[in-house]
Amino acid sequence: MGKTLLHHFLFSFLFALVLAGFVYASSPVDQKEYVTITVAPGDTLWGLAKQYEEEHGLSPNEFIRWVMEMNHLSSSRLTAGEQIVIPVLKSKQGGSLAVNR
After folding, report:
1. pLDDT exceeds 50 at position 101
2. Residues 92 and 57 sit within 8 Å (Cβ to Cβ)
3. Helix or strand (DSSP H, E) at 60
4. What is the pLDDT of residue 1?
């Protein structure tokens, strides 16, 4: 009886952890909290990743993946004049990390 109760408790605990992980991972990112920039001629995602690396704290590949996903970009090519959201929190601009999903 005690062993079965322990198994139910452990299963419930693990299930709650997995559920909490899904909820956390699937929560949408509020783009209003992040910095929006206007792409200048010659800008690339790689260059922007390097330019803002102290603010976002991500690897260039993580930065590019985040920008492409949040801005629904089908390719990594940018167009001058285009506005994109980058993983730098407005409240942390000049500070630390902005991401994490």
Report:
1. no
2. no
3. helix 60-70
4. 64
